[in-house]
Amino acid sequence: MILDKFSMNFPFLLILPLLFINVEADGDRLDTPDNIKNFHLIVGFSLTLIILGWIGCIYVFYRIYKQWLLSKKRLAMIYRLPFYSACSDFLINFNFFTNMIHTAIYAQVWDDAPCKVIGALNWAFLTINLCFYAVIAVITYLRVCREIYFHYGKYDYKLWVYVLTGSAALQVLNIQNNGKRDYWCAAKSGQINSAIILFSTIGIVLIVILFCYLSILRKIRIHINDSSTSSSSNHNNDDNVRSAVIDNHTEIERRAAKKILSYTAMFMLQWIPMLISQGARLVKNEEPWVYIMGTIGRSFGGVGNVVQFIINEGFIVKTNINISDDNNDNNNILLKSNNNSDVHLESHINNSNDNKIIIISENN
Fold this sequence. Notes:
The chain has helices at residues 2-9, 36-70, 77-106, 112-145, 157-174, 193-234, 239-282, 288-313, and strands at 178-180, 185-187, 332-336, 343-349, 356-362. The chain has one domain: Rhodopsin 7-helix transmembrane proteins (Rhopdopsin 7-helix transmembrane proteins, Up-down Bundle). By secondary structure, the chain is mainly alpha-helical. This is G-protein coupled receptors family 1 profile domain-containing protein. Its main location: membrane.
């Protein structure tokens, strides 16, 4: 009875003993004496990173759930973004775990039919993640730099229409290339079409993200400098007030830059290894390090997302956070830091003036 109840609550744990069973299978095995070290390295590293990615996703889910309760079951976009990213990373890791667990147990990849399905799902989840980063970067750029506002729709369905459309287009381009590789199911060995597509996609998305976020940083700096100049002219007889304003401007810029740079850095840490892996595949390199780079590209997202979340929001849930839902306010952009000083940078569009006004406030 106890075993049955345990297996019902934790069914995934039943497969773990299989990892220690030497199962005979037909065909060439990957755990031959001359390849056993590479086999243990790739499989062990992949499963470890998958578990760490899952832990990161679960932590983000928990923090977002707590914030959802504190916000009376409403979430601002600054919390929905890490939640969506965690969902994407969780699906990538789940598919990769399904992929690798067969290799770990049987020292072989899946048969052709299931391998093509797993490879197609792998491609779908990876491209959804890439398109998501690109769409968010472009939307943020349009809001901050071009003052073009985007309504996400109910449950952010418009956002996901763009993401899924981009992913579907890439899936159509690659549908014929799914199959077996040495250690997992993805793009089949012996062809470079999928490597060309993924390499190009990662490169384009990286350029888009760098352009968008660097432009946002430049826009913030310009507005802060303009506001600082205005404050200096209005308070030229009061050095203390002018100094305090300039200090606030510097702090706001630092925090905004930290958030923007964290998104860019985590994207690069996840996808540049994958870019390197695809570059190696262009010359048909199947060395173990190529698979290690591919593993980082797939599974680092869950780890990077939680690190980024903790950097931006802190490790402990704050109960005194007041976040406005930017999806329902078309004329407001909020770049907000949740540290103790609660320094806010708000950007409003004045209906009677075409110029953007920066309002800086500090709550006591």
